[in-house]
From TrEMBL:
Family: Belongs to the Nudix hydrolase family.
Protein name: NUDIX hydrolase
Listed InterPro entries: Nudix_hydrolase, NUDIX_hydrolase-like_dom_sf, NUDIX_hydrolase_CS, NUDIX_hydrolase_dom
Species, as recorded: Streptomyces wedmorensis
One GO MF term attached to the UniProt entry: hydrolase activity
Residue segments, region Disordered: 1-20
Positions of the Nudix hydrolase domain: 20-148
Record's keyword terms, sorted: Hydrolase
Top-level taxon of origin: Bacteria
Pfam families registered for this protein in UniProt: NUDIX
Transmembrane segments: none
PROSITE patterns listed in its UniProt record: NUDIX (PS51462), NUDIX_BOX (PS00893)
Amino acid sequence: MTTADHAATARRNVEPPPAQASLGAGVVVVDGTGRVLLGLDRSGVWELPGGKVEPGESIEAAVVRELAEETTLVAGAADVEVLGLVLDAVTSARLTRMTVATVVRVFDGVPAAAEPEKIERWEWTEPDRLPEALFLPSAQVLRMWRPELPLPDGPFHRYAMGRLPE
């Protein structure tokens, strides 16, 4: 390999391709009685905590960060269970929205609206009493967690993560 070939290879490995996708995490926070945490967005729609995975950040780290930023709840990366991936097929013709569905069952604190300009309040909700005004990507994450829940389907592709035998 020539010096020019080495330089091209090195450049190719560090320069990102044009953005084609956005990666986020949706977090199903489950309390000791099996209820899930939902936030009332200022628009009147209920949603799960979650948000964007930053460059260089692991999914678990993003979940822990977003959970603390939005709800003040504290969890550890080891407390994050990755369930699968949800691909949004229609939000944008130029960008694929990918949401990693996750569950957190172990945490410290009491939920509080840490971003009151976005979320009015957080409430614990029985899974069989989910509100109709539910943010569709949150509904898809909830379906990844509990496929039997009567939630609206949509133009999404769902990929469950399998576990390796121990």
